[in-house]
Amino acid sequence: MAEEINSEVATNSVTKASPKDDGQLAMSTRLVTLDVVAQALGVSKRYVQKLVQRKAIPVIRLGKRCPRFDLNRVLAAVKRFEVEEMTLR
After folding, report:
1. From the CB of residue 54, how many other CB atoms can be counted at a distance below 10 Å?
2. 67 CB contacts (<8 Å, ≥6 apart)?
3. Looking at the domain that runs over 2-15+24-77, which CATH code has it been given?
4. Long-range contacts from 71-75, C-beta under 8 angstroms, 24+ separation
5. Domain ranges (residues) in the chain
6. What band does 34 get if pLDDT is binned at 50, 70 and 90?
7. Is the pLDDT of residue 61 over 60?
């Protein structure tokens, strides 16, 4: 499944880069669609929209109906909600 997501990210990504001092391109940031985020998280597209509405995950709005996401930042935001289970002795 991870391979499917990586290939999906590669086909649905937008590259953003900035030049370095030596004229080469810096590390690129891939922007992905709502579908890719939903698939990566294993949830529905509607739930991703609710997370955006609640401002639980970061979104980049390229237009009114054109949200894009930095997948690394989304995964980091979701990681904040991780709950560590405790066992009773």
Report:
1. 8
2. 33, 34, 52, 59, 60, 61
3. 1.10.10
4. 71/9, 71/30, 71/32, 71/36, 71/37, 71/40, 72/29, 74/37, 74/40, 74/41, 75/40
5. 2-15+24-77
6. very high
7. yes
Q: Which residue has the tokens 């499944």?
A: 1
Cβ atoms of 79 and 71 within 8 Å: the answer is no
Alpha helix locations (H) across the chain?
2-11, 34-41, 45-53, 71-79
For 81, the 3-state DSSP assignment is: coil
Calculate mean pLDDT across residues 56-66: 94
Burial zone of 27 (CB within 10 Å; 0-12 exposed, 13-18 middle, 19+ buried) = exposed
Question: What pLDDT is recorded for position 28?
Answer: 52
Helix crossing, 34-41 with 45-53: angle to 10°?
A: 100
Instruction: Tell me the whole-structure pTM to 2 decimals.
Output: 0.64
